[in-house]
Amino acid sequence: EINLTPMLDVVFIMLIFFIVTASFIKESGIDVNRPDAPMTESKPEDANILVMINANDEIWIDRRLIDPRAVRANIERLHAENPQGSVVIQANNKSSNKMLVEVMDSARLAGVYSISIADSR
């Protein structure tokens, strides 16, 4: 009968050696702090329609609080002023998906089919 104890000792010593000598790679990341851009009053010709949804599910268009039932009319008005512009929905992480879908549906019903979603933290 062969005694396996010395072989197990060698295996565990090798295991400990490889664990200790292994180089653990830490993923490095870069923290990015975006500066606040100054708000300009003049709109470029191809300006997008920015719709913001905050954490309380309040809808803001052109720095004005908008009732959810009036989103379609506001998007239609802004789209008539600039037919080339698309709708950019900037939704807060804590806003509900229901409100986001309602705004997207309102934009589609207003005749805007170019819709982008941006994340707002």
What does this molecule look like?
The chain has 121 residues and is an alpha/beta fold. It has a domain at 49-120: Nucleotidyltransferase, domain 5 (2-Layer Sandwich), CATH 3.30.420.270. It is built from 3 helices and 5 strands, in the order αβββαβαβ. The protein has a 5-stranded mixed beta sheet, covered by helices on one side. A hairpin with a 2-residue loop joins strand 2 (59-61) and strand 3 (64-66). Helix 2 (71-81) packs across helix 3 (97-109). The protein starts with a helix and ends with a strand. The mean pLDDT is 84.
Quick rundown:
Helix content is 34%, strand content 19%. The protein contains three helices and five strands; from the N terminus they run H-E-E-E-H-E-H-E.
Feature tags:
single chain; 121 residues; alpha/beta; Nucleotidyltransferase, domain 5; five-stranded mixed sheet; 3 helices; 34% helix
Spatial shape: rod-shaped
Helix count equals: 3
How large a portion of the residues is in β-strands, by DSSP E?
Answer: 15-25%
Q: Largest sheet, if any?
A: 5 strands, mixed
DSSP strand count: 5
Q: What is the CATH level 1 assignment of the domain at 49-120?
A: Alpha Beta
Query: What structural class do you assign from the helix and strand content?
Result: alpha/beta
State mean pLDDT (0 to 100 scale): 84
Helix content: 25-40%
Low-pLDDT segments: none
Please state how the strands of the largest beta sheet are arranged side by side. 3-2-1-4-5
Q: Could you tell me how far the N terminus lies from the C terminus, measured between alpha carbons in angstroms?
A: 68 Å
Radius of gyration: 28 Å
Assembly of the depicted chains: single chain
